[in-house]
Design goal:
This protein is α+β, with helices and mostly antiparallel strands. Helix content is 47%, strand content 11%. The chain folds into three domains: 87 residues, Double Stranded RNA Binding Domain; 98 residues, DNA polymerase, domain 1 (Orthogonal Bundle), CATH 1.10.150.130; 173 residues, Intergrase catalytic core (hpI Integrase, Chain A, Orthogonal Bundle), CATH 1.10.443.10. The protein has 18 helices and seven strands. A hairpin with a 2-residue loop joins β1 and β2.
């Protein structure tokens, strides 16, 4: 009988349960008639080792013999083939990181810089939606400007803001990959910009009602519904839609509304809350809204949760207005600039904007609450039909 190559492909498939030698230490171990595994028995450093070479029949007889030959060559070279295989896997993992792995690691490293530790997922979503489906399984070292161009071309002119976020996040991932020691082209994203060309998309500001016309609109919000009350408070406070729609009774103490830092756009430091002074007109709106409260929310929707921004927008749309709820922040800011002498820092703080650099903010301990209260009282006087200039 031959010492090696004892088995044949057809013969191996016909064998029942048992252990069958092909020769030179290669064995077919059949656990049942239709499946089994290949095993190589070899002596390494004076010790008998068994090395799995894969399942049968997924790994053919010819492939099992090739794997066995490679392993025997390592033994002859004084190496342990099992440890060498593990080392090669680790080396391959280090040298062939996929973009999706690098992106996930980059996101984890940056979470501390993001609002709410990135729990909302907004930082990662441009990558997840527009980059990783096409490039995620590519080794990061292989990605070049043409790959990036082809990936973002479908949205470059139609979703310009999203495309900018996606290419910016990708640039950070490439820098992260370089920091991990991978050979990447750090200029690939800029080269891709050159290939994509200047975006044709024109950014349009959200339409705003001129501040002179706000009193007329405010006066029309008289039916006491959740939508009317929400719009009134939105106008009176100058806050964004989201914190207002999710306003809870517990956030109000006396004549101050404290918005949690995680609900404030652009505020990454969760210890920095934002206080909104509530003037008498705003307190009256809140008192009326409490009659509609549900689960602690002052502005609940008809079915569940809270009122949506779209609900307020649709009211204005049905009236044939171009302006939208978010635009009332611009109305307030224009009024501050044109009808008052409010200092720039106070006016910007009224809108919840971060003013000054990190060092300046560290030394400035005030949030101008009293100055903002006085200005909001004047603003309330204006929107309720008074001059607002006293």
């Amino acid at each position: 009988m031959r010492a090696t190559n004892r088995l044949s492909a057809k013969g191996a498939a016909a064998l029942g349960r048992g252990k069958y030698a092909d020769g030179a230490g290669l064995w077919l171990v059949k656990e049942e008639a239709i499946r089994g595994k290949w095993v190589l028995r070899a002596t390494v450093y004076g010790r008998r080792r068994e090395m799995g070479l894969g399942p049968f029949p997924a790994v053919s007889l010819a492939e099992a013999r090739r794997k066995a030959d490679d392993a025997r060559a390592k033994v002859r070279a004084g190496l342990d083939p099992i440890k060498e295989r593990e080392r090669e896997k680790r080396e391959a993992a280090r040298n062939l990181h996929l973009l999706k792995d690098v992106a996930a690691d980059c996101y984890e490293a940056r979470k501390a810089e993001l609002k709410g530790d990135g729990k909302a997922g907004r930082w990662f979503s441009p990558l997840e939606l527009h980059v990783l489906p096409k490039l995620g399984k590519m080794p990061v070292s292989d990605i070049d400007q043409t790959d990036i161009r082809d990936c973002l071309k479908p949205i470059w002119h139609t979703k310009a803001a999203t495309a900018e976020k996606a290419i910016g996040r990708l640039a950070l991932c490439m820098k992260h990959a370089a920091a991990l020691g991978f050979q990447v082209d750090l200029q690939a994203t800029e080269k891709a910009r050159a290939l994509l060309g200047k975006s044709r998309h024109k950014v349009e500001n959200i339409p705003a009602l001129p501040w002179q016309d706000v009193p007329g609109f405010y006066a029309s919000l008289t039916d006491g519904t959740v939508t009317h009350l929400a719009l009134r408070l939105l106008i009176l406070t100058g806050v964004r839609s989201a914190p207002l729609r999710f306003l809870r009774e517990s956030q109000i103490s006396g004549d101050v509304w404290t918005i949690p830092a995680e609900a404030m756009k652009g505020r990454r430091d969760e210890t920095t809350e934002f206080r909104v002074p509530l003037v008498p007109e705003a307190l009256a709106v809140i008192q009326a809204a409490m009659a509609h409260s549900r689960d602690g929310f002052l502005f609940p929707s008809v079915r569940k949760g809270v009122i949506s921004d779209a609900t307020m927008s649709r009211l204005m749309e049905r009236r044939g207005m171009q302006a939208r709820p978010h635009g009332f922040r611009s109305s307030l800011r224009d009024w501050l600039a044109e009808a008052t002498e409010a200092p720039h820092d106070v006016a910007e703080t009224m809108l919840g904007h971060v003013v000054g650099g990190s060092v300046e903010r560290a030394y400035r301990r005030t949030d101008f609450l009293d100055q903002r209260r006085a200005l909001l009282e004047r603003w309330a006087g204006h929107v309720t039909g008074q001059s607002g200039k006293w």
